[in-house]
Amino acid sequence: MSMQKNEQVIAGLFNAYQNRNAVEMASFYSADAVFKDPIFGTVQGEEISKVWQVVHSVTNDLYLHYHIIQAGSSIATANTYLTYNFKHTNRNIKISIKSHFRLANGKIVLQTDEYSMWNWMSQAYGLRGLLLGWNPFIINRARISAKNTLLSI
User: What angle do CA 96, 148, 46 make, to 5 degrees?
Assistant: First the structure.
């Protein structure tokens, strides 16, 4: 696949994200794709669409800015800057995510997102997140909650 085509796939994914369209976002992934994220862990296939449904359901006022750093014949890397209101705590979040993609046949087969869980927890839960957001036990509880939400969809 050409570098330009892969760049279009990544741009399409982020544009669908900005438009809060989980179904369109899912169309950019292969049927057996893998998604890795600090809060959701590793999810595969149809569960990826559920991740985006959950993300859209817990956020208000989403603003997304992305920059594709690299788009090769089978890999891509992008920085994403998100701002949104987290519905559970009514707190504003500003987060930077680095996404690594592996692509094949015009589809994403692997996406790995990197961001600071402590930074996210600090913003999402205020002082409690600031003081405890680094703690593996607390992070694991957040991951379990996210996984349970996925299972409920």
Answer: 75
Write out pLDDT tens, residues 24-74. Answer: 999 999 999 999 999 999 999 989 999 999 988 888 889 999 999 998 889
Does domain 3-116 correspond to CATH entry 2.30.110.10? no
Q: pLDDT per residue over 91-142, tens digit each?
A: 999 999 999 999 999 999 999 999 999 999 999 999 988 998 888 888 888 8
The H helix count followed by the E strand count for the chain is 5, 6
Bridge partners (DSSP) listed for residue 97: 80
**Long-range contact pairs involving 103-107 (C-beta distance under 8 Å, separation at least 24):** 103/1, 103/6, 103/9, 103/74, 103/75, 103/76, 104/1, 104/30, 104/74, 105/1, 105/30, 106/1, 106/5, 106/6, 106/9, 107/9, 107/28, 107/29, 107/30, 107/33
From the number of C-beta atoms within 10 Å of its C-beta (0-12, 13-18, 19+), residue 1 rates as: middle
Query: Is the distance from CB of 122 to CB of 131 less than 8 angstroms?
Result: no
Would you call 43 helix, strand, or coil by DSSP?
Answer: strand
For the chain, give every domain's residue range.
3-116
